[in-house]
Amino acid sequence: MKHLPEIFFVTAFFGIVFLLGGYDEKVGSAIGNTKMGAAVFFTQSTTSAQLQDTFKNASSTKKKLNILIVPGHEPDFGGAEYQGIKERDLNADLALYLAQYLVEDGHYEVVLARGRERRNPFLENYFASSAEEIKKFVNTQKEEMARLVQEGKITTKNNGVEHNDAPTDVALRLYGINKWANEHKVDIILHVHFNDSAPRKVNNPGEYNGFTIYTPERQYSNAEASAEVSKHIFKRLSKMFPVSNLDGEAVGVVEDQELIALGSGNTVDAASVLVEYGYIYEPQLRTQSVRTPVLKELAFQTYLGLADFFHEPSVISSPYESTFLPYEGKTPVKKTLLANKEVLSFQAALSHKGFYPPENYTKNDCPISGLFGPCTHTAITAFQREHNIKGEKGEAGPKTRSTLRSLFAPELITTR
After folding, report:
1. What is the mean pLDDT of the chain?
2. Largest CA distance in the chain
3. How many CB atoms lie within 10 A of CB 63?
4. What value does the mean pLDDT take over residues 369-393?
5. What is the 3-state secondary structure (H, E, C) of the chain?
6. Is the pLDDT of residue 113 over 80?
7. Residue 310: pLDDT above 60?
8. CA within 13 Å, CB half, 1
9. Residue 167's pLDDT is what?
10. How confident is the model at residue 20 (pLDDT cuts 50, 70, 90)?
11. Which of 119, 247, 349, 361 is deepest in the core (most CB within 10 A)?
12. In this predicted structure, what is the pLDDT of residue 394?
């Protein structure tokens, strides 16, 4: 499979993006090099109003929103796996699609923490040159947190969701990313992940599905802005995708005090959001022909959520606010053992028109997966009944596809 190109400092230039090696460390970061201290307890390090003002004034000040996208895990190890599919690769691919949408929009400066093959060289150098400073930073913040807890000024909270512990070196790099982001005035940090069920046999799917968003616990200095950004991203993703049905995640947006990515020990100034975009074994991720459009759609909905937060219409044109739509229905919709693009597009179209998931089913029961099963059959039957389509009972024949297609683009009506 051809990998997506490695892009770390992402900027638009006549439609071209600068690839790996296209910058010089001597010129500093793509988003500035002014240093800042660690986050201060009980003082908001950023607010929704401040972020929105920066966005609003970008044209006059020429200061774009600084966004750091962090694909979860290391390039060569870590993360969930299922039948050869690696979470760390999914994270990197989705992160790159998201970066491309943000750059195309024009309001954002974007930095990727890593690609599929390696870490951002600028961050790699930072980890090496600032190793002792990072350790000191972590210890100072942890000691302050412990003191405030002991004095009863901060309450420790557990949301009931268990997280895997990161190896020491990985944890230090995550804290290093937080410190780097503080020093370079990053406005928003987006962490990209996929979930997994535990325990689970290696080649068997687990029992849960759906996405969830983690946001800093409300006592942290970056909590307010993070929660607002999370709320808007959640609203977009939940229009089409199911929310995780794991206990503790079903609320959709989960406050967390322990995740390093969100600022454990109050280590992040920026608004920070961590999205678990689904479970590694879900059918829409198993085949590349479906996985690629799904990753693009997840990235696009995340981009739209940010646009909503800033109260701005999305710059990228999409009349149906989805990369899956409009429905063109040019090819037959067939039952297969694996997910396919035709079924995926058909399900998305039915979802947009309110027929999928069918009545008395949830998105968790019937996710947009590209698999033609009982959910799709039931939805087709309801659609045919509504539109008085005869002779194609429970199957997406030419009349069914033509009718559905006409609801999006009447000029495409033909019987196939």
Report:
1. 88
2. 73
3. 16
4. 94
5. CCCCCCCCEECEECCEECCCCCCCHHHCCCCCCCCCCCCCCCCCCCCHHHHHHHHHCHHHHCCCEEEEEEECCCCCCCCCEECCEEHHHHHHHHHHHHHHHHHHHCCEEEEECECCCCECHHHHHHHHHCHHHHHHHHHHHHHHHHHHHHCCCCCCCCCCCCCCCCCHHHHHHHHHHHHHHHHCCCCEEEEEEEECCCCCCCCCCCCCCCEEEEEECCCCCCHHHHHHHHHHHHHHHCCCCCECCCCCCCCCEEEECCCHHHCCCCCCCCEEEEEEEEECCCHHHCCHHHHHHHHHHHHHHHHHHHHHHCCCCCCCCCCCCCCCCCCCCCCCCCCCCCCCHHHHHHHHHHHHCCCCCCCCCCCCCCCCCCCCCHHHHHHHHHHHHHCCCCCCCCCCCHHHHHHHHHCCCHHHCCCC
6. yes
7. yes
8. 12
9. 86
10. very low
11. 349
12. 84
Burial of 60: CB neighbours in 10 Å, binned 0-12, 13-18, 19+: exposed
Q: Does the pTM of the predicted model rise above 0.85?
A: yes
State the number of CA atoms in the 13 A half-sphere of 290 facing the CB: 23
- The length of the chain, given as a count of residues: 416
Confidence grade of residue 166 (pLDDT, cut at 50, 70, 90): confident
Cα four-point dihedral sign 250, 252, 257, 261:
positive
Residue-range domains of the chain with CATH: 9-309 (3.40.630.40), 341-412 (1.10.101)
Residue type for position 221: S
Q: Hunting for tokens 């600084």 — which residue is that?
A: 66
